[in-house]
Specification:
The protein is α/β, with parallel strands linked by helices. The protein has eleven helices and 18 strands. The strands form three sheets. Strands 5, 6, 10, 11, 12, 13, 14, 15 and 18 form a nine-stranded mixed sheet that branches. Strands 8-2-1-9-17-16 form a six-stranded mixed sheet. A three-stranded antiparallel sheet has the order 3-7-4. The protein starts with a strand and ends with a helix. It binds flavin-adenine dinucleotide (FAD).
């Protein structure tokens, strides 16, 4: 077999985006997906994607190919504390941007990337089991947090288990969302309602009162394992009642429009991100709590950074040169570490039951809400990461 320039292991959103980006730069790429499991359920998650991620996907001709309604713009965000009235609000107009973020259907985005790969001239899809038999100058590992290839390289993966899971589902509300995302920090729960557009055919049975596509939400509800298990075991009506209670009715009545699925939550980081002829990207390198909706944005940031480092390399330097790959690792160390710390800090702040902590965090929210420059700075960090 003729050697490839790059072998990309893992065909999630990060792996496919990397393969497409490298192929557009004229490289010969072998993409090695894991065989799909027959039992795999469609992903009910929706991703909040920032401007940098959208720009990357647009450059790959994937963003504009998404079907109408697969991405919903967020113009306003309300973060509620765990005391009445404690709230932090962000808006696109205050931030002087067209939208704060885009909520994107995870399954549709994956499908569109898969289609783009099929039509990319320099990408060869190769069986993952063919591993070592696929010669390439560089192996890019995009296998997610349980990466076997990372383990085979002997790289330690430091993990902190939050003892929490995130429940995701699609919902229909009795009120339109008007492009407003809402999040409740309920200590230790964190519940996010992300404005969403449901495919026409998905309707709860019986239909929700006055439901319309603009009243749909993607739910991400992070909570301790035992409570999550209880909620997952409840029937739809009881679950919807729990949602109504947790959101205080701020989004109206909420009805399930999909199955519920759950993910265990961790903070994790690989101790090394590259070596001679290999490099880690996305969740294979770093995992953060989803409360800020930034994990995939960081992974797509890795793709952009690695491609820029490769494009700027000296003509004589090999793609697998560890010195080259360290430039990428150095560039990504700070933003990924900082996001891990911010999400971990918020998670801890809203989980602690220490005396005075609840008052402090709720006062903090209200204070920041009255400091527009600080608010703008915080939002800009989230928009750019
Ligand atoms: C509930 C929840 C909500 C989230 N919401 C957001 C959000 O709003 N915004 C955001 O930016 N991020 C969000 N995230 C984070 C986001 O899901 C991840 O950061 C992102 O999916 C990581 O992408 P990845 O391609 O690196 O890894 P993965 O999505 O895990 O993909 C890895 C791929 O590699 C394959 N693979 C595994 N092992 C092998 C192997 N040995 N050989 C070949 N292939 C292999 C897998 O099958 C998979 O296809 C959320 C996470 C959760 C849990």
């Amino acid at each position: 077999m003729k050697p490839f320039d790059v072998r990309v292991r893992g065909a999630g959103i990060v792996g496919r985006s990397l393969a497409l980006s490298l192929a557009r730069a004229g490289m010969q790429v072998a993409l090695q997906p894991q065989p799909a499991r027959a039992s795999a359920q469609p992903d009910v998650r929706a991703y909040a994607l920032n401007a940098a991620s959208v720009a990357l996907l647009r450059g790959l001709k994937v963003w504009d190919a998404l079907p109408a309604g697969a991405a919903t713009a967020v113009h306003e965000m309300r973060v509620h504390g765990d005391a009445t009235g404690a709230m932090l609000e962000f808006s696109a107009w205050q931030q002087r941007v067209a939208e704060l973020t885009w909520i994107t259907d995870a399954a549709v985005l994956e499908r569109e990337l898969e289609r783009a790969v099929q039509f990319a001239p320099h990408i060869t899809v190769v069986d993952a089991d063919a591993g070592a038999d696929v010669p390439a100058t560089l192996t890019a590992v995009c296998e997610g947090k349980a990466s076997a290839t990372r383990a085979a390289y002997g790289v330690a993966f430091e993990q902190h288990d939050y003892g929490q899971v995130a429940i995701a589902a699609r919902l229909i509300a009795s009120r339109p969302h008007h492009g407003v995302a809402q999040q409740w920090f309920g200590g230790p729960d964190v519940l996010a309602l992300l404005p969403f557009t449901l495919p026409d055919q998905v309707q709860p049975q019986p239909p929700a009162p006055s439901s319309s596509p603009s009243s749909a939400y993607a739910l991400v509800w992070s909570l301790p394992q035992a409570r999550a298990q209880d909620l997952l075991a409840q029937d739809a009506a009881a679950f919807e009642q729990a949602l109504l209670q947790a959101t205080g009715g701020a989004a109206g009545e909420l009805r399930l429009a999909s199955d519920r699925a759950a993910w265990p939550l961790t903070l994790a980081r690989a101790e090394a991100w590259c070596g001679p002829g290999w490099v880690l990207l996305g969740d294979a390198a770093h995992v953060v709590h989803p409360l800020a909706g930034q994990g995939l944005n960081l992974g797509l940031g890795d793709v952009t950074a690695l491609c820029a480092v490769i494009a700027a390399r000296e003509p004589w330097r090999s793609l697998g040169d560890e010195k080259l790959l360290r430039r990428y690792a150095r560039e990504r160390a700070a933003p990924t570490w900082a996001m891990g710390q911010v999400t971990d800090g918020l998670q801890r702040l809203f989980s602690t039951t220490a005396p005075g902590a609840a008052e402090l965090r709720n006062r903090g929210l209200t204070l920041v809400n009255h400091l527009p420059p600080l608010k703008r700075w915080l939002a800009a960090r989230a928009l750019d990461s």
